[in-house]
Amino acid sequence: MSLVRAVRLKTARLLLAGIFLILASVSLGAEDRIHKVQNVFDPHSTPAHGILGIAWIVLAICALIFVVVGSLLVYAIWRFREKRGDQGTEPPQVYGSNQIEMAWTVIPLLIVLVLILVTARTTIEIDEPAFPADALQIQVVGHQWWWEVVYPEQGFITANEIHIPVSSEDDPRPAIIQLASADVAHSFWVPQLGGKRDLLPNHPNRMWIEPEQTGVYWGNCAEFCGTQHANMLIRVVVDTPEEFEAWVLNQQRPPREDPAVAGGRHIFETMTCINCHAVGEKGAQNGFGPDLTHLMTRGTIGAGVGETSRDDLYQWLKDPDSMKPGCYMPDMKLSERQLNKLTDYLTTLK
Ligand code: HEC
Ligand SMILES: [Cu+2]
Fold first, then answer.
1. Which of 78-82, 182-186, 224-228, 252-256 has the lowest mean pLDDT?
2. Are 270 and 241 members of one domain?
3. Are 179 and 207 in contact (CB under 8 A)?
4. Residues 204-228: what's their mean pLDDT?
5. What's the CATH code of the domain at 338?
6. Mutation probe of ligand 1 site: the residue of 277, 286, 315, 316 with most atoms within 8 A of C-beta
7. Is 276 in the pocket of ligand 1 (CB under 6 A)?
8. pLDDT surpasses 50 at 26
9. Residue 291 falls within a domain, yes or no?
């Protein structure tokens, strides 16, 4: 292939990639209520607004420094460039100017001081708010590679999907999220709702969010925690207060016991599934695997690698590694009959 053709091909490919990216972002924008693009510049929750405010201040100050330094540099390069007729002599050398030394010590010091003060103010505002006594308490435990979500006061456990009611000015409903880890360090980050905070073994942390718009907000683990670190999707579903009540009531219900899938339930309860998973009172309450009591009310399985559809569940049970390589759900070498029965059973867990 000639060089020219190769270059043309490359350009065409780049163009295509560009068009694809633009189309992708447009189609993402269409799903308005699902905030898939995790955009820190579009906050919908109280601490996220504060964080963006300070980010703008820091960006503005840095942009100003960039412009000033950049302009001085360009000016100096232009003004003192080698000119025709230059004899190659050095320009006059200035040494030890007190004014200049003072200026470039004091000005940066003031800038850093301003940055420290605004950062400290925002940090304090975010860390020490006066929570109402009845604020919603949620406990999130990071696992390799999924999120356990506990509602201690409501008395149920779920996974990878956090529901909270929307806040308004007359009815603020902050949710306090206690963060812990079952294994290694993870980090909870839903950019549109709040800052990033680590989940550490043996060191409880906490944060809070107060979203003012309903919808689904996506977040991710923001601390490398192993092979499937990138597949730890967090979905925060911000409901209206009524939707939230209804969701809580359903999560509190005991698991459905549909007689039509008794065969699948029997397999589930007699195989090792029950050593790692809980369905209601039955099974492992140690949280090694996600609680499955109301599995089908969630949007995804495997923290975002699949949907709660029959096809994806079947594939997951058949070979978890094909969807999430290295995950801690073992391949159980199930027969097709077992797979079908189990999948039928799981799809009734609403
Ligand atoms: C050794 C423990 C273990 C055993 C045994 C086990 N699982 Fe799992 N399972 C897990 C773990 C861990 C995950 C989470 C994987 C991830 O997202 O990284 C999981 C995820 C799942 C999920 C997806 C849930 C969600 O919300 O993401 C389903 C469904 C599931 N398992 C069903 C089963 C069934 C059915 C069996 C029995 C045939 C079984 N599991 C056996 C550990 C286990
Ligand atoms: Cu993680």
1. 78-82
2. no
3. yes
4. 93
5. 2.60.40.420
6. 277
7. yes
8. no
9. yes
> Which atom of ligand 1 is closest in space to residue 346's alpha carbon?
29
For residue 67, give both structure tokens.
């412009």
Of 148, 235, 276, the residue with max ligand 1 atoms within 8 A of its CB, to mutate for a pocket test, comes to 276
Q: Count of residues for the chain?
A: 350
* Number of domains comprising the chain: 3
Tokens of 32: 């308005």
Q: Tell me, what's the pLDDT at 102?
A: 94
Residue located via tokens 């000015």: 169
Measured in Å, residue 282 CA sits from the centre of ligand 2 at 27
Inter-residue contact 314 to 301 (CB < 8 Å): no
Residue 55 in tokens: 């980010």
Q: What does 148-167 look like in DSSP terms, one character per residue?
A: EEEETTTTEEEESEEEEEPP
Closest CA to 236 of 188, 271, 201, 284: 188
327 lines ligand 1 (CB under 6 A): yes
Q: Could you give phi then psi for residue 242, rounded to 5 degrees?
A: -70, -45
For the Cβ of 268 lying below 6 angstroms from any atom of ligand 1, the answer is yes
- Other CB atoms within 10 A of residue 325 CB: 11
33 pairs with which residues across the strands?
Answer: none
Distance CA 160, CA 220 (A): 10
**229-261 burial, b if ≥16 CB within 10 A, otherwise e?**
bebbbbbbbbbeeeebeebbeebeeebbeeeeb
Could you tell me how many helices (H) and strands (E) the chain has, helices first?
9, 15
Q: Which ligand is nearest to the CA of 341?
A: 1
Q: What pLDDT, on a 0 to 100 scale, did the predictor assign at position 24?
A: 52
- Which residues line ion ligand 2, judged by CB < 5 Å? 186, 221, 225, 232
Q: What is the pTM of this model?
A: 0.83
Verify that 52 and 141 share a domain, yes or no.
no
Contact in structure between 122 and 51 (CB atoms under 8 Å): yes
Q: Distance, CA 320 to ligand 1 centroid (Å)?
A: 8
Structural domain for 304, as ranges? 259-346
Q: In percent, how much of the chain has pLDDT > 90?
A: 73
Lookup result for tokens 């412009």: 67
The answer to whether the CB of 329 is under 6 A from ligand 1 is yes
Structure token digits, residue 323: 């969807």
